[in-house]
Amino acid sequence: QVRLVESGGGSVQAGGSLRLSCLASGSISSMYCMGWYRGAPGKEREMVARIDSDGTTKYADSVKGRFTISRDNAKNTLYLQMNSLKPEDTAMYYCAASRLRYCSGSWWEYAYWGQGTQVTVSS
Questions:
Q1: DSSP state of 43
Q2: Which contiguous run of DSSP H or E holds residue 105?
Q3: How does pLDDT run across 2-46, given as a tens digit for each residue?
Q4: What 3-state DSSP class applies to 75?
Q5: Which of 5, 39, 74, 107 minimizes the number of CB atoms within 10 Å of its CB?
Q6: How far apart are CA 34 and CA 37, in angstroms?
Q7: Would you say residue 70 has pLDDT above 90?
Q8: Distance (Å, rounded) from C-alpha 28 to C-alpha 38?
Q9: Kind and range of the H or E run holding 42
Q10: DSSP 3-state assignment of 87?
């Protein structure tokens, strides 16, 4: 069973940076698509960023130019570099992975999830 564990969340002031990590208990080489989702009270769960096995990325419009997703298959780790953070970025961030042979923006198509790491950005 693949287990995903997020880390790196915390509290920062607007304009600050955080780097989230998602460590998998097993190989992520078979995970065609991995991504980061976030959820906040009163808001629909949204895709923040995703990356396929070839390194092709996709970002939510709200984070383009500020966030960078990457993966290191040798370390079985997914990353999310978050710069120029805004209060609107405050949410629980989740790591997700899929073996489907396409990279989906729909959260229900990801079979593997971490338990989340909280990111809080103050004004």
A1: S
A2: none
A3: 899 999 999 999 999 999 999 999 888 889 999 999 998 888 899
A4: helix
A5: 74
A6: 10
A7: yes
A8: 21
A9: none
A10: helix
